[in-house]
Design goal:
The chain has about 475 residues and is α/β, with parallel strands linked by helices. The chain has a domain of about 250 residues: Amidase signature (AS) enzymes. It has 17 helices and 13 strands. The chain has an 11-stranded mixed β-sheet, sandwiched between helices. Strands 4-5 form a two-stranded antiparallel ribbon. Strand 12 and strand 13 form a beta hairpin.
């Protein structure tokens, strides 16, 4: 069995017992990248030399006997996150040559713990997409069926973990970009509460929704990672100064008596794939068998989450992406005037989906339409938050499908923008409200495609979400 198939917890034990070295573990992951990446296209940049040097340092630390649990563990990072001296393109040609001079805070924390960066992972450009077909470096393919998408925007991060190209990934979730590809690829993905992890060093898409979180093979691994990644950061004013729980201890608590809300708006969605529905219902029964109390609930504002999301995100996009003009960093095209340099650089450097959202957002923020669109969307967003707050007075977590369908075919929705946007129907509400949400594998369809189950919790109650997910995950693997 390849060392790359290990979980973080399993690998950490082997590293401490000297059954393997970080060099060997890193070598196994890099070998899988070399073997599989031409097919899956999960990595844009592979940092082989840097990885072996980090592994050498990790092995020296392990030899001293005082290493962190993450010391020597290979990981990958979504390419919309800054990594010092390793190229970060955001999967857009406008940043094809950009090499950040600093690490994002969460990456610096992981490196300080001794984790080994093996490369940067493909994604929809700047996080714009639900299928990872909007990368200017090509689409990512699903390891379970290479004719299917890996999900988006963090498809490369999910596919890399599923294909044993690294033991975990760091990605970002604005409206579902961690959870939806995690569901499609059969791995665990957490969107932390807004403010729980620092956003410093993350290429911003929609600043009021962006979060950065982990993707791994087990809920236990995600809990381990959150203990390192979470915490206040002086460089990010949106991060919260709230103590970080011992997530690895919290997930071990019994879920007997846990009140699990079942929102009818998620479970009774017309047109949901029937196999997905059946698998989710089986998982609901498993939670009941574990001693949870199932509580039917209603979230009537849920239906407005998609339109709110697709008004707020483009608006904030159009502002954030204004900094990418081909002048200060990245790729600059030639032109006869400054205005032409801007126009040509952005036209060639952004894919169509990014341009579409910039145009929509600029329109929504314009003087004549700001009140009608952006301001109104923010008011409805507040109503969605209140909807969740009222529901959580009677339940501890919500349980829903992660996606209304399993991974779809490459190109299947490429020409239907609205159908693609609806792929986020179950993941966008928690994002709009800033809530923690976890996707765990719930089973597979008859054709072998993974189906994800989602748990949503109160803001900053990430531990409860992980506890529920861990109980279900261990039941599947007991």
């Amino acid at each position: 069995m390849s060392l790359a198939t290990l979980t973080i917890a399993e690998a950490a034990k082997k590293l401490r017992s000297k059954e393997c070295s970080s060099h060997e573990l890193t070598e196994a992951c890099l070998a899988n990248i070399q073997e599989k990446n031409d097919t899956l296209n999960a990595f844009i940049t592979v940092s082989t030399d840097e990885a072996y040097e980090a592994a050498r340092i990790a092995d020296a630390t392990l030899a001293k006997g005082d290493a962190h649990v993450l010391t020597g563990i290979p990981f990958g990072v979504k390419d919309a996150i800054c990594t010092k001296e390793v190229r970060a393109t955001g999967a857009a040609k406008i940043l094809d040559t950009y090499v950040p001079p600093y690490d994002a805070t969460v990456i610096a924390k992981l490196k300080d713990a001794g984790a080994v960066l093996v490369g940067k992972q493909n994604c929809d450009s700047f996080g714009h997409g639900a299928s990872n077909e909007n990368s200017m470096y090509g689409a990512v393919r699903n390891p379970h069926d290479t004719t299917k998408v890996a999900g988006g925007s963090s498809g490369g991060s999910a596919a890399a973990v599923a294909a044993d190209m690294c033991l975990f990934s760091v990605a970002e979730d604005t409206g579902g970009s961690i959870r939806q590809p995690a569901a499609f690829c059969g791995v665990v993905g957490l969107r932390p509460s807004y403010g729980r992890n620092s956003r410093y060093g993350i290429m911003p898409m929609a600043s009021s929704l962006d979060t950065v979180g982990p993707m791994a093979k087990t809920v236990e691994d995600v809990a381990l990672l959150m203990e390192v990644m979470a915490g206040v950061d002086a460089k990010d004013a949106t991060s919260v100064n709230v103590p970080v729980p011992r997530y690895t201890e919290e997930i071990q608590k019994s879920v007997k008596g846990l009140r699990v809300g079942l929102p009818k708006e998620y479970l009774d969605l017309p047109g949901m794939d029937e196999e997905t529905r059946a698998i989710v219902e089986t998982n609901i029964q498993m939670m009941k068998d574990l001693g949870c109390t199932l509580v039917p609930v209603s979230l009537p504002m849920t239906k407005y989450a998609i339109p709110v999301y697709y008004m707020i995100v483009p608006s904030e996009d159009s502002s954030n992406l204004g900094r990418l003009d081909g002048i200060r960093y990245g790729v600059r095209e030639q032109g006869e005037s400054l205005e032409e340099v801007y126009a040509v650089s952005r036209a060639h450097g952004f894919p169509n989906e990014v341009k579409r959202r910039i145009m929509v957002g600029t329109y929504a923020l314009s003087a004549g339409y700001y009140d009608a669109y952006y301001r109104k969307a923010q008011k409805v967003r507040t109503a969605i938050i209140r909807d969740f707050d009222a529901t959580f007075k009677g339940v501890d977590v919500l349980m829903t499908p992660t996606s209304p369908f399993p991974a779809f075919g490459l190109g299947e929705k490429a020409n239907d923008v609205l159908a693609m946007y609806l792929a986020d129907v179950f993941v966008s509400p928690a994002a709009v409200a800033g809530l923690p949400a976890l996707s765990v594998p719930g089973g597979k369809t008859k054709s072998g495609l993974p189906v994800g189950v989602q748990f949503i919790g109160r803001r900053l109650d990430d531990a409860r979400v992980l506890q529920a997910g861990h109980a279900l995950f261990t039941t599947h693997h007991s």
